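Appendix B. Chain record.
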Amino acid sequence: MVEPDVEVPEVTLPDNWSEIPARSIGSPQLVGYDDCEDLEQSLKFSIEEEYRIQLLQAAAEEYYYGGGMWEDDMEMVADSASDTDGGNSAQPRATKQLVEGEDYSGTNNQEEGVDEADFVKTDGYNIYYLQGQKLHIFGVPEFGQLSDLSNTTVEGTPQAMMLDGDELVVISTLSPWSLSRSSPVIDEMGWDGEYGNWRTSSLTKFTVYDVANRSEPDIERELYIEGTYITAREVNATVRTVSHAWMDVQGLQTWLDLPNGYWNLDYEDPLRTEIRQKVAWDTIENNRNALTTLTLEDLLPQVYEYSNGVVTTHSMTDGECADFVAPKEGFNRGISSIFSLDLTSDTFDFEVDHIVGTYPQVYASQDLLVLAESAFDWWWFWGNDEANEMTNLHTFDISGETTVYTGSGRVNGTVVNQFALSEYEGVLRVATTAGQWARWWMEDPEPMSSQLVTLVRSMDPETEEQILVEAGRVDGIAPGERIWSARFDGDRAYIVTFEQIDPLWVIDVSDETQPTILGELKVPGVSTYIHPLSRDHLLTIGMGPANEDGTGLDWSGTQISLFNITDPATPSRDAALRLSPVNSNESDYVWSWSEATYESKAFQYWAPKELLAIPLSTYRYLDYEVNGRYYWSYDYVSKLILVNVNETTGNLSVYGTVDHSDLYTQGENNRWWNEYNIRRSIFMGDYVYAISSAGITATNLTTLEESARIQILQDSQSSDEVFVNEDDSTSSDEEGEGESPSPAG
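Structure tokens predicted for this chain:
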């Protein structure tokens, strides 16, 4: 009996309204569309089905509450000078050409010769830093010195940059509503200013600066791309950046607008189910009708070029949509775009390739760019639980100025990050975790397992297309566990899996047809990043064990490990070192953390000195009384821990620290963009530079005394930054004070 205050929709459900069509997996090979109409219909069909599945889940009261692959795990997933000589100065700049890797450290890149975008860059003579909305350029007249050259406001939120000589590309993200009302880009986007009425909520902007005069960077070109920035790589002055667009589709919804009185019904009342189903079907029909009113331009990202006060819109539908490709029988509507920019060109020419698919992981060697994307989005598996997780691998030749598609392949499982991919002597290697961990609606999903697969390029005899075919594999690595970190080093692969005890796997991939497990080591804790030191040693960072029996993870701290692989069949751990920014007896501090546990660019190993620099932070609550009133605040600790790494003795030891904590307590009304951590470090000669949102310091590696600093104060009432330049240097020629054993070299 229908209760009088319940409004039941007058909807007739078709017999097959909730039927899931048979899914066709198809080939991973990228193919073009017949024409723009074909592209439009394909995108609309995928959008319609995606929204329909989510409405069916809502009708069945299946909702995502967390868990899956990351359950009980860490969420990985997923801007006036002190020119004093600090002692032991480097050679005068006029007489020495500085070399990255010999004189100073650069970005911790995955592959040699492939520079990765980051928010800190250096050429050895200057340090470029994106913080807040500012591009800071600091001069390094001599190693150990600092000078403030300029700070330039960047539109949006700067994310990363690429540097090549006097050309600097700054990549920032912004939303349409953050653009200035006078910006001509607003008109080109067709946005009327109404909330919820934008084409996309995310823009990626390239700003190309001429920094020949570091004191006055000059904007040369600006490019706005609809979509989310993923990453950028630079090889031989050609920058390739990858973004992913998920256009906001107007007039569609994935939720149920339930009628009055629904929530007054008993939970077990069958009328609740009937109402949900009818509302779901009505919403499905409304979505289908709304899609018919949309044009292809509503579904595709566009590019807006701004130069000399003029905006040029680059529509992606020119030439019968020839720049768009997708896997055969693909079922996606996200669009990954590879933009290629030549920094040495006098004109702002760019090349773009669009792949219709899911959000990818990106890997690049000097010759090859790889997009590793889930073959299908999570909703595709609803009603198809028997299908396995799959990853499409799309490869592109980037050895020249143009980007050329060279073929695709597919492997079971998913990749954890870029380090699970590698290209070596023409062979693509990939480590994946397979299973049904992403099926959050399943009560008993297939357990996880891991594998390593090698792939080579071949010719399809039927289509005469270049394809990636499997050459060899290792299956069944650590059943029930997932990959936490991986690293390829020439003809070897290293994989760390974890459930309760951390196994390190050493795999021989010298013969791509027969990859072979050489050795395995089970040790407490887990490694989240692997750094090859040499043929015989690995340096890793992660978390130590939580329990005395070596099980679980201690999320409150950071652990460094030195692994010995002199005999790869019997790998061993020479040393493990727990790091903390405070003394162990200071129990009022909460857990500490290091960005280096999940971001490789915060991990800086400097081989000439055998030193590892790791940022570590923590905080504690402070309460105090003033005139009978109680107050509370935070006390922040932000340090750079220097660890001596001795491969010969197999020892790890804390060499010293760089402390930025006082930078966060000096001055009033400073917020530092809610960022209270040292985030990057640079080694230069006998000095290490630590960089945080509060400033930059130089520290002598022999005396561990600060030689220079520039403090950045963030005014709480505006976005303007105030610089405080301090001469904190102490001559390293002084004896008897602050002495410390010198690191190697």
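Further analysis of this model is presented in Appendix C.
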